[in-house]
Amino acid sequence: MSSENLLDAVRIVLVETTHPGNIGAVARAMKNMGLSDLRLLRPRHFPDGEARARASGAGDVLAAAQVHQSLDDAIAECGLVIGASARLRSLAWPMTTPREAAGTLVENAAHTPVAVLFGREKSGLTNEELQRCRLLMHIPANPVYTSLNLAMAVQILAYELWIAASGDSVAAPDPEFPLASDAEVERFYNHLEQVLLHTGFLDPDNPRLLVSRLRRLFGRVGLDQNEVNILRGILASVQQPKKR
Question: How far apart are CA 115 and CA 37, in angstroms?
Answer without folding.
Answer: 9
